[in-house]
Design brief:
The chain has strands at about 5, 10-15, 20-25, 35-40, 45-50, 60, 70-75, 80-85, 90-100, 100, 105-110. By secondary structure, the chain is an all-beta fold. Strands 2, 4, 5, 6, 9, 10 and 11 form a seven-stranded mixed beta sheet that branches. A four-stranded antiparallel beta sheet has the order 1-3-8-7, with no helix packed on it. Strand 4 and strand 5 (about 45-50) form a beta hairpin. The mean pLDDT is about 95.
């Protein structure tokens, strides 16, 4: 079973940037869709973005379009989420997901 390890979270001021990483222990298929979700305090988990290992046609939720960018490093089985112009409403625990597997979550805090 694949394992996912996230890294790169932390505390940043509004307008700042962070890059999240999600390293998969293995690739089961080149067709795997990798997703980021987030869960803010007191709210449901919500979809953020998705990309395949071939890195074509990434998709994003509307309120992060133009600010967040997905990319992949196939050689290292790693997906990145570059987050720019962060806003306080981006504060959440971010989770990486492939099929039924979830990472442990990583906290992002954006101060105003």
């Amino acid at each position: 079973q694949v394992q996912l390890i996230e890294s790169g979270g932390g505390l940043v001021q509004a307008g700042g940037s962070l890059r999240l990483s999600c390293a998969a222990s293995k690739r089961t298929s080149s067709d795997n869709i990798m997703r980021w979700f987030r869960q803010a305090p007191g709210k449901d988990r919500e979809f953020v973005a998705a990309i395949s290992w071939v890195a074509d046609h990434p998709i994003y939720r509307d309120d992060v379009k133009g600010r967040f960018t997905l990319s992949t490093d196939n050689a290292n089985n790693t997906m990145y989420l570059q987050m720019n112009n962060l806003k306080p409403e981006d504060t959440a625990v971010y989770y990486c997901n492939i099929d039924e597997t979830w990472g442990q979550g990583i906290r992002v805090i954006v101060s105003s």
